Amino acid sequence: MKASQLLSPTLRETPAEAEVISHQLLLRAGFIRKAAAGVYTYLPLAQRVLRKISDIVRQEMDREGGQEITLPIIQPAELWMESGRWNVYGDELFRLKDRHGRDFALGPTHEEIITDLVRGEIHSYKQLPLLLYQIANKYRDERRPRFGLMRGREFIMKDLYSFDRDEEGLANTYKKMYDAYTRVFTRCGLKFRPVEADAGAIGGKGGTHEFMVIAESGEAAIVYCDDCDYAANVEKAEAKPQSLAEEAAAELAEVKTPGVKTIEELTKFLGIESDRLIKTLIYQTEKGLVVAVIRGDRQLNEIKLQNLVDTVQLHLADDGVVRLLTGAEVGFAGPVQLPATVCIDGQQVQVQVIVDEEVTLVANGITGANKTDIHLKNVNYGRDFGAHQVTDLRMVEPGEPCPRCGSPLRWARGIEVGQVFKLGTKYSKALNANILDENGKSREMVMGCYGIGVSRTMASAIEQNYDENGIIWPVSIAPFHVIVVPVSAKDDTQMQAAEKIYGQLREMGIEVVLDDRNERPGVKFKDADLIGFPYRLTIGPKTLAEDKVEVFNRRTGQSSLEDIETVAKNIAELIKRELDQLVG
Ligand SMILES: [Zn+2]
Predict the structure, then answer these.
(1) Is the pLDDT of residue 575 over 50?
(2) Residue ranges of domains in the chain, CATH in brackets
(3) Is the pTM for the entire model greater than 0.85?
(4) Which of 176, 349, 371, 539 is surrounded by the most beta carbons within 10 Å?
(5) CA 222 to ligand 1 center in whole angstroms
(6) How many Å lie between the centroid of ligand 1 and the Cα of residue 304?
(7) pLDDT over 90 percentage in the chain
(8) 400 Cα–ligand 1 center, Å
(9) How many Å lie between the centroid of ligand 1 and the Cα of residue 393?
(10) 3-class DSSP state for residue 340?
(11) How far is ligand 1, taken at its centre, from the CA of residue 406, in Å?
């Protein structure tokens, strides 16, 4: 490709609307242009990167027996109603009507439509396992599309759906996909970690892992261990109870604490550490009130609580409800002698008390007394209050021991680029996707779904690989491997030498751009760095005088002079070696 013909309009200035580095660099280096909020055109350089990522994904899916198909983007509402998601999916679902007034959605995900396909075509256990996938645009009507390709409204995903005869089959398929994902991101040249994650809104009670590209700009905090392979996102990370100094239980007593409501005020007022305090948080859910009890110095993990109670809605109770339950002003709630039910708007509502396991280790703690301006001291779990359930409810904190091996946990930030997910029978049950087993008995197919954000992987690669001059592509997904730069395109000798090397590289299967533009060398070098060609070969009067070419390695920043006769062959071999290493 000649640079003079390549549509890669670079910008000198950083566009004001771009908040994250990948967005800035994709715009500046001429990879994307915005069409509407969260909707982008991919220019040739981006298209090449996307194709490379897609090819890697495709090869690894095929290797595990995946079959590629294309599902419609426009999906009939009836299927979403059948699964029950039409009403619960919310405003993120792009909805549209056809000329007859029939409802449709632009697919954010394809569980319904694929389950509909498979229930019509597959009837015997002998046809399973079945792994179908596509690489296609997905749609999500984000309230605030931002961060360029990170949180767009239209994005490219690979989604694979697996159908197995039973849980054992699913476990086997899940393992295959987990391994395939590991190979995909390794081949893309990215530093990543698979982490245990929360199942979230897709549903299903099985396991799930997220594949996170490690980057400081990552939106998710992940916790991992260097001494074993434990890694989890922070919402999911298991916390082990840390015990405090033991102490004999003292007599329960009231303390006057006029106007003292917050943890900070209380520790100051009583002259104690916050780990002595026992916090009581009251939540409203569709299953009644949930009272979460946790140590004063800890953060409650609402996702753990929500999964435990198995609720759709979970929000802190409003002041009126707190007053009804505790009989006191907000700030004085406690678990001691809390009523088991409460009458709200004429309805008896159940109260469920869930206690974090660390609270059971607090000796002589302090809690609200359920009386305005009064707290209780010497509160002990078991003697003074009980629970419907004692479990891990809190967020892990840095430096805490790994739940598997006890080494200190480390923290990093990551960008989710893939997720593998055991759906179980959620969709096959809702949509009656059944097979006959070997005994002629009808049973629901057991499903999994597995996504990779293809456009997001491209953006994440930049978030992980850049410097002040621009993008530093991993060789395997770089739009081109090499740029050949004659210092002056007007100089025939330089151009001839450049054309020759360009031709040799192309013959050896190397993807190369010849910068034939009439630009100053400084401009060409800046563009080459910005776009992120892994190797730049520069030909100028000084190098030609010695029959040499300057080879610049974008990642290391190092330059060397190589013989003009052998440079193409050597670079081609180097690139092929680098690519082979990634395949492993
Ligand atoms: Zn460990």
Answers:
(1) yes
(2) 21-238+410-463 (3.30.930.10), 253-391 (3.90.960.10), 480-583 (3.40.50.800)
(3) no
(4) 539
(5) 14
(6) 21
(7) 82
(8) 11
(9) 20
(10) coil
(11) 6
